[in-house]
Amino acid sequence: MNKPWPYKSDGELRAAGYVYETTRRCYGKTCGATIEIWRMPNGKMMPLDVGTMEPHFKTCPDVEDFRK
User: Mean of the per-residue pLDDT values for the chain?
Assistant: First the structure.
C-alpha cells in the first residue's frame, strides 16, 4: 500500500531536506508535461508536477518507460 505524498508546498519540501534543481519537460513519449525536479535527502531525483507538488509518476501516462 502506498502512503499519500505528505508534502503540499515547496516550503514543506525544503524543511524535509529536499533541494530544488530545475524545471523541465517530461521525457515521456507522449507526456511532455512541465515538471519540477527536486533532489531528495538521499540524493536521488524526484520529479514533481508543477502546481500540485505531487510525484509525477502518479500522473505520467508514460511511467512504464522510466521503470528499470
Answer: 92
